[in-house]
Design brief:
Mean pLDDT is about 75; it is low at about 1-10, about 15-35, about 245-255 and about 350-359. A hairpin with a 6-residue loop joins strand 1 and strand 2. The chain has helices at about 40-70, 80-105, 110-145, 155-175, 175-180, 200-245, 260-290, 300-325, 325-345, 350-359; strands at about 180-185, 190-195. The chain has a two-stranded antiparallel ribbon. Helices cover about 70% and strands about 0% of the residues. It is an all-alpha fold. The radius of gyration is 24 Å and the shape is globular. It has a domain at about 40-110 and about 130-175 and about 200-240 and about 255-340: Up-down Bundle (Rhopdopsin 7-helix transmembrane proteins), CATH 1.20.1070.10. Helix 6 packs antiparallel against helix 7 (about 260-290). The chain contains ten helices and two strands; from the N terminus they run αααααββααααα.
Length: about 350
C-alpha cells in the first residue's frame, strides 16, 4: 500500500479491488492533517516482486497456452478447461500485475475516470474467472470419477459450465463500473481511483466487500472441497471393496480409476490447493480489516504487500503444476528451445563479423 502508514488515506492505491483499502472509502480526511501518499520502500519491494512474477507468469502461461492449443494433451474434453484457466491466468498477468505495479509507482491515478472504471472491472473480472474456472474443473473431475459412463457428454457439459463461469464473472464484476471513479482531492494536486463517496454508510461498504469475499473465495472453496471430498470417499470405498475381496464388474473404468485419469485428478487437486494456499492469507487479512479497521495501525505496511504478492504467485503455479504432471508440455518446451538453438546456429555470422571489423 503506497501510502504514509501513520496517516493513511482512502486515496492511497488499494492493494486489490476487494481487499482492504487504507481507510474506509467514505471517510474524507481533513486537508490540514492529510498527507500525500508516497512510494515507500515496502511498495518498492512489491513492485519489484510483481515485475518478476509478471515475467515468469507471462512466459510460462503463454508456453502452456501454445502447448495445450497444439492438441497433444490434455484429453479433448479437458482441453477447453485448461485453455480457459490459462486465459484467466493471462488476464491476471497482463491486467492485474502491470496495473498494480504502475499504480504503486505513480501513487495517484493519471488514467481518467473511464479508464479507472474499466480497469477496476477487469481486475475483479480476472479474479472471478480464475476462481470459477477452478470450480468448473473440480465439477468435471467429480463427474468423471463418480459417473464415468456419462463421460461421452463431458465435452458439451464443460462448455455449458464454462459459459456460466465466464458470464457470472462478468456480472459479478460489473458493480465496479459504478462505484469506482477518479476522485480529486480538494485543495491538493492529487487524484485517485477509489470508491470515495459511493457508500453513504460504513456498513454498506463492508457488506459489498463481504459479498465479493463470499462469492470470490468462500463459495468456490466450498464447492471444490465438496467435489474432492466425494472423490476421495469414492476412491476409499473402492479400496475397501478390493481388500474385502468382493467381485464386481469393471466396466468402462466404472470401479477402477485408470492411471491417466488418476494423474489428471492429482494435477487438478494440486492446482486447487495452490489457489487456496496462495490467496487464503490475503483474504483473512481483508476480513480482519473489514471488522477492525484500526488493525492497519498495528500491522507493518510490508505485511499487506507481501501477502498480495504471495496471492499473485498462484498465477505462476498453474503452468508449473501442469508441466510437472504432463510430459508432453515439457517435451514441447524442450523442442522449442532446441529449435531456437538450431536457428541461431544456422544464422549467417555476418553481424558478428561486421562487429569484429568495427572493433
Amino acid at each position: 500500500r503506497a501510502g504514509n502508514h501513520k496517516n493513511m488515506s482512502s486515496l492511497a492505491p488499494p492493494t486489490s479491488t476487494v481487499a482492504p483499502p487504507t481507510l474506509p472509502s467514505t471517510w474524507t480526511p481533513p486537508l490540514s492533517t492529510w498527507e500525500t501518499p508516497s512510494f515507500t520502500s515496502a511498495a518498492q519491494f512489491r513492485v519489484g516482486a510483481t515485475l518478476v512474477l509478471f515475467v515468469f507468469a507471462a512466459c510460462s502461461n503463454l508456453a502452456l497456452l501454445a502447448s495445450v492449443g497444439r492438441g497433444r494433451r490434455p484429453p479433448s474434453h479437458l482441453r477447453p478447461l485448461m485453455l480457459s484457466l490459462v486465459s484467466a491466468d493471462l488476464m491476471m498477468t497482463f491486467v492485474v500485475m502491470p496495473l498494480d505495479a504502475v499504480w504503486n509507482v505513480t501513487v495517484q491515478w493519471h488514467g481518467g475516470d473511464a479508464l479507472c472504471k474499466v480497469l477496476c472491472f477487469l481486475k475483479l473480472f480476472a479474479m472471478y474467472a480464475s476462481a470459477f474456472i477452478l470450480v468448473v474443473i473440480s465439477l468435471d473431475r467429480h463427474h468423471v470419477i463418480l459417473h464415468p459412463l456419462n463421460s461421452i457428454k463431458a465435452h458439451k457439459r464443460n462448455r455449458q459450465m464454462l459459459l456460466v463461469a465466464w458470464t457470472l464473472s462478468i456480472l459479478l464484476a460489473m458493480p465496479q463500473l459504478f462505484i469506482f471513479r477518479a476522485v480529486r482531492m480538494e485543495g491538493a494536486d492529487f487524484t485517485q481511483c477509489a470508491t470515495h463517496g459511493s457508500f453513504s454508510r460504513r456498513w454498506q461498504e463492508t457488506v459489498y466487500n463481504m459479498f465479493h469475499f463470499i462469492t470470490l473465495y468462500v463459495v468456490p472453496l466450498l464447492v471444490m472441497s465438496c467435489c474432492y471430498s466425494r472423490i476421495l470417499l469414492h476412491i476409499h470405498l473402492q479400496h475397501l471393496r478390493e481388500k474385502a475381496g468382493e467381485s464386481y464388474l469393471r466396466r468402462s473404468g466404472t470401479d477402477i480409476i485408470p492411471k491417466a485419469r488418476m494423474k489428471t485428478l492429482k494435477m487438478t487437486v494440486v492446482i486447487v490447493l495452490s489457489f487456496v494456499v496462495c490467496w487464503t492469507p490475503y483474504y483473512l487479512l481483508g476480513i480482519w480489516y473489514w471488522f477492525q479497521p484500526d488493525m492497519l495501525r498495528v500491522t507493518p505496511e510490508y505485511v499487506h504487500h507481501v501477502l498480495f504478492v504471495f496471492g499473485n504467485l498462484n498465477t505462476c503455479c498453474d503452468p508449473v503444476i501442469y508441466g510437472f504432471y504432463t510430459p508432453s508440455f515439457r517435451a514441447d518446451l524442450a523442442a522449442c528451445f532446441h529449435q531456437k538453438r538450431r536457428n541461431a546456429a544456422r544464422a549467417p555470422p555476418n553481424r558478428a563479423r561486421s562487429r569484429d571489423v568495427v572493433n
